[in-house]
Design brief:
The protein is an alpha/beta fold. The protein is 51% helix and 7% strand. The chain is built from 16 helices and five strands. It has helices at residues 10-21, 39-51, 64-71, 89-98, 121-132, 152-155, 168-177, 182-189, 195-202, 207-220, 227-239, 245-264, 276-283, 288-304, 311-322, 329-333; strands spanning 28-32, 77-80, 109-113, 138-144, 159-162. It has a five-stranded parallel β-sheet with strand order 2-3-4-1-5, sandwiched between helices. Helix 12 (245-264) packs across helix 13 (276-283). The longest helix is centred in the C-terminal third of the chain and has 20 residues, at 245-264. It is elongated, with a radius of gyration of 25 Å. 37% of the residues are buried.
Length: 340
């Protein structure tokens, strides 16, 4: 791999190349951006570039240093991952101990903190001292998806480089190239912002069933009947984990968007390209205002799931809103009243 293979992050890569060329390398960087957009890969390539034996084409990927870093066995390149749910002070102290000895003259030590937002307060304070008073020549790279969770004192000592979400078309193309079904590759590419995360999602055992079941479920909601409410218990809560409810809602929003575009006659912008007949049939059963109301209901449900609420209550309220609002609450909830 090389800088050129970090797709979609040309501006960040150019900044790093300029820093190396002009010998203005910072002692600490923060690579911030969504999951799967190349932050960790870029950090490893940066470590290679700083230690490449062929500086005119760094990182060359051919010299001994580049190969060792690429294989993960370079003694002066350290990657800290969370130990459990956090990066702990013991890990930072061990790093300080290892870096207390001077490296060879040609080596720039690099420490990469993956999921840096998980640093405990004690570990963060210890790292802060380490950044302020490095005992050897080194560069730190903090990788995070949640930049606002980092201590401001740590962030202020880093050069911030923001990684952009990858365009869905790029992700879709990459997934298809790896053998993912094109229909599901397109959907996954619109749900997450990185190739690796999208591939993991698309290849998951439940992804296709959730897509199919969601489409049928959405097709039943405009009828105003209680079946979609019953299915919350019999299908969604019975067969899927609570964590998968977010996926259901994200898919629902994309599907309603496709139905809206179908009603408006928008051509060539569908996410669910493999379900043309279902799109056309369902779009005819929704009015423009009901589709907009439905999308708003999904967004509100997605926000509600972030709090201490029961998924069943959230999904029921969403369906009821799509079917006409609170006036339906009593009649629609009747099937569940005997379950307590």
């Amino acid at each position: 791999m090389s800088f050129a293979e970090i797709r979609g992050q040309d501006q960040v890569m150019q900044l790093l190349k300029n820093a190396l060329k002009n010998e203005r390398v910072a002692h600490a960087y923060c690579f911030a951006g969504p999951e799967g957009v190349g932050k960790k890969k870029a950090a490893i390539e940066w470590a290679k570039a700083l230690n490449c034996e062929n500086q005119d084409q760094a990182p060359c990927d051919h010299c001994r240093s580049c190969r060792r870093i690429g294989n993960g066995n370079h003694p002066d390149i350290t990657i800290l991952e969370p130990d459990g749910s956090s990066i702990k002070i013991g890990q930072v102290r061990e790093l300080q101990r290892r870096f207390s000895f001077s490296p060879p003259d040609e080596v720039t030590r690099v420490v990469i903190l993956h999921q840096a937002e998980t640093l405990t307060l004690q570990a963060a304070n210890s790292l802060l001292k380490f950044l302020e008073e490095p005992v050897t020549r080194m560069v730190a790279v903090l990788i995070t998806e949640q930049i606002h969770s980092l201590l401001p004192t740590i962030l202020s000592r880093c050069q911030l480089l923001r990684f952009r979400p990858l365009p869905p078309a790029w992700i879709e193309s990459s997934l298809v190239d790896t053998g993912v079904d094109p229909a599901y590759a397109r959907i996954a590419a619109h749900l997450v912002s990185g190739v690796e995360a999208a591939e993991k999602l698309a290849r998951g055992d439940k992804f296709a069933p959730v897509c199919e079941r969601m489409i049928r479920w959405m097709g039943e909601i405009p009828s105003g009947k209680s079946n979609p409410l019953v299915e919350i218990q019999t299908v969604w809560l019975a067969d899927f984990d609570p964590g998968e409810m977010n996926l259901l809602l994200d898919l629902s929003l994309l599907w309603l968007r496709d139905l809206l575009h179908e009603r408006l006659g928008v051509i060539g912008d569908s996410v669910f390209v493999g379900w043309k007949e279902s799109r056309q049939h369902q779009a005819s059963r929704w009015t423009l205002s009901s589709l907009l109301n439905g999308m708003d209901a999904v967004i509100q449900a997605r926000q509600a799931l972030a709090g201490p609420v029961q998924p069943q209550a959230v999904l029921e309220r969403m369906v009821l809103s799509m079917q006409g609002g609170p006036k339906h609450v009593v009649s629609r909830r009747r099937p569940f009243q005997t379950s307590g």
